[in-house]
Fold this protein.
Amino acid sequence: MGKFLGYHCSLCGTEYLPGQVTYTCPKDGGNLDIELDTDAIKKKFHYEDITSRDETSLWRYAPLLPVFVPKGEATPLHLAGWTPVFKLPRLAEKLGLDHLWLKDESRNPSASFKDRASAIVVARAQELKSEIIVTASTGNAGAALACMSAAVGQKAIIFAPKSAPPAKVAQLLVFGAKVILVDGSYDDAFDLTVKASNEFGWYCRNTGYNPFTIEGKKTAAFEIWEWWIEAHRDWHKKDSPLDNHPPLTIFVSVGDGNIISGIHKGFKDLVKLGWIPDMPRIIGVQAEGSAAIANAYNADTEVITPVSARTVADSISVDLPRDGVRAVRAAKETNGTYITVTDDEIIQSIAELGGMGVFAEPAGAAAYAGLVKAAGSGVVGSADPVLVLNTGSGLKDVKAAMQAVVSAPIIEPTLEAVKKLL
Ligand SMILES: *Cc1c(COP(=O)(O)O)cnc(C)c1O
Ligand SMILES: [Zn+2]
C-alpha cells in the first residue's frame, strides 16, 4: 500500500493511479500534482500530533509525505530541512517594515533548498528499487542529489552546463556522483537528461518533471506554518497589536518555478487538512534577464514563452521554466505577484544580507532584492509581516560574492604599513 492516492494533471485535470505514470502527463506534458489521502490523514492526525514530533528535519512531516522514510538514521538525507528563521531588524527598519525574517536554506546538508527535493526523490527511487538516479542541474539540484544519494549509497549521474560555478561542480565530484558537463545551457542539459533516462532506464529527478520534487519542497511551507504558529503565540503573550495583522508575505526566487509551486502545494495541503486559517501571500522574484514566468504572470497568461536567459544568478537562469504554470498560479491564487530584479540589485543584496551575517548566493539574494523593490513600490506595506527565503549559500559562487564587495588591500607585514593604510 503506497502513501498517496495518485496524480492529478495541473493542465488537463486527468487523474492517474500511482503505477500509471512516472513523470509528466502523457496527454499534454503537464506537471502532475501528487494527491494525498487528506481525509485519511485528517482522521488519523490532529495538527498537534505533527507539531509535537521530535524529528528536527523534513521527516518530521512524514505523515504528510508520499514516501516512506528511507532506512538508516542521522545521515544527511535524514537531516535535510528544519532550517532556522532569523529576524532582520536593521534591514526591516531600513525598508520601513515592522516585521522581517529570513529563513536560511543554506543550512541544508549540501547548502541549498534543493536538498528538500532530492531527499524525497532518493526515498522514492529506493522504493522503486532504481539502480541509478539522474538529474540535470545548474549545480544545486545536482549537488543535493549527489549528497542525498551518497548518504544512502545510491548511484547518481549529474548533467550540468559546463558554465556551472566551480564550487558546485566540486560538490558534485566530492559527493562521488558521475558528473557530465554539457557544452550547452541548463535547458540543453535538461533535454539530454530526459532522453538519456528514457534510453537507459534511469530514474530522472529533473526539476519540474519528476512530480516528487515539489513534495520535498513543500516541507518548507510546513516549517513556515509551524514557525508562524509560534510567532503568533509570542505576539499574543505580549498582547501585541498584531492580533489583526495582515497575512504573512513570503518572498522566494524563481527559476524553473518548482520551489514556489512546492511552497504553494504545502500551504494548499494544510488548507485541505483545515490546519491553517489563511493562505500566506507568495511573491516570486525573477532576474530581469531570466523572467519567463514573471512575463507570463504580468501578461495574465499561463502560456510560458521561453527567453534567452542571462543573469549572474545561475540557479535561476532558465530559458524555458519547467514548472511555469503552477508557478504563475502560486502568486495568482495567493494574492501575491511577481517582481523582477537586475543583476546589480542582486549583487547589492548579497552585500546587504552579508551585513546581517547571512551569506547568500546570487539566486538566494534575489529574493531579498525583490523585497527591496516591493517595499519601495508599496507592494508590501509597513504592517505586512515578511519572510524572505535565502535558497542557497554564498560559498557556492565566490566569484559573484566578490562582485558585491571591495577587495581587501595587501600590505607588507609591518606596523608601519598598517598605520599607513588606516
Ligand atoms: C533552484 C534554485 C532556485 C529556484 O528554484 P526553481 O524551482 O528553479 O524556481 C532558487 N535559488 C536557488 C539557490 C536554487 O538552487
Ligand atoms: Zn494533462
Notes: The CA atoms of residues 350 and 365 lie 5 Å apart. The longest strand covers residues 155-161. Residues 112-114, 140, 207, 253-259, 315-316, 361, 363-364, 391-392 surround pyridoxal-5'-phosphate (ligand 1) (CB under 6 Å).
